[in-house]
Amino acid sequence: MASTVTQRTSGLVQRRTEAIRSAAVDRESGGEEDEARREEEEDDDKGDSKETRLTLMEEVLLLGLKDREGYTSFWNDCISSGLRGCMLVELALRGRLQLEACGVRRKSLLSRKVICKSDAPTGDVLLDEALKHIKETQPPETVQSWIELLSGETWNPLKLHYQLRNVRERLAKNLVEKGVLTTEKQNFLLFDMTTHPLTNSTIKQRLVKKVQESVLEKWVNDPHRMDKRVLALILLAHSSDVLENAFAPLQDDQYDLGMKRVHTLLELEPEKESTKPNVNELMWAVVAAFTK
């Protein structure tokens, strides 16, 4: 009798121990990616407080904004699609999106579909809006298609609802909330326009310095040893036609050297680079979409 009770007790203890161990494994596997992303984001933005940590979209817009006037160049017709590309890369860097498997025949980057890896909210309204569209769309679309759809550049009236509206204004308001910009009204003869002049020059200077140093003092001569976020920023700022603004203040010799190194990055072949270990394939797909 006593031995039977002992066996039952030990059996209960064993099952309970196994259940606890199983639950712990589930939590670990589910939380691994989130923890990795949190650590990556914290490492990427050392020295920045939570309030002034900027997304790729905000950084590209900030590089494109005129400091005093508070608006982007009227002649820049690249920044709209560039900002949509930034959203896709930002979501990929945060572990929300990825490309479908390349398959045995090795599909090209531009023919592979964008897959929702996680629909966990990012805390950014624009990113979550884009993520919701991508998650709910079946069959999935390619990177090129998503840049066009999110920009509203489609002839299909049934897909116009994918367009993210007033993106620049919404990003500027984010930067106002983070204390980087302020809001003013300017009169342009026939109409009034809301502008967002720079109010915190330290944040802008830190951003410009980060871009400059990545191809000057901190140049590593290997894109795969560069910080993924900084590499993406350089490539996407170029696609958005705002990268030049970061190098304009440099002396001639530094400017020439910096731009020479930028061109070595721009001349990389996305298809080839995406096959190397520890890369973000979706980022290279976005680069391929802008350079095709």
What does this entry look like structurally?
By secondary structure, this protein is mostly helical. It has a single domain, classed as yeast vps74-n-term truncation variant fold (Orthogonal Bundle). Helix content is 55%, strand content 5%. The strands form two sheets. Strands 1-2 form a two-stranded antiparallel sheet. Strands 3-4 form a two-stranded antiparallel sheet. The termini are far apart.
Q: Can you give me a brief rundown of this structure?
A:
Its main location: Golgi. The chain is mainly alpha-helical and 292 residues long. It has helices at 2-44, 56-64, 79-93, 125-136, 143-151, 167-177, 201-215, 228-239, 244-247, 252-266, 270-273, 281-291; strands spanning 97-99, 114-116, 184-188, 191-195.
DSSP strand tally = 4
Q: Give the overall form.
A: globular
Distance between the termini: 79 Å
Strand content: 5-15%
Average pLDDT rating: 85
The percentage helix is: 40-55%
Produce the secondary structure layout.
Blueprint: H1 2-44, H2 56-64, H3 79-93, E1 97-99, E2 114-116, H4 125-136, H5 143-151, H6 167-177, E3 184-188, E4 191-195, H7 201-215, H8 228-239, H9 244-247, H10 252-266, H11 270-273, H12 281-291
Antiparallel strand pairs: 1-2, 3-4
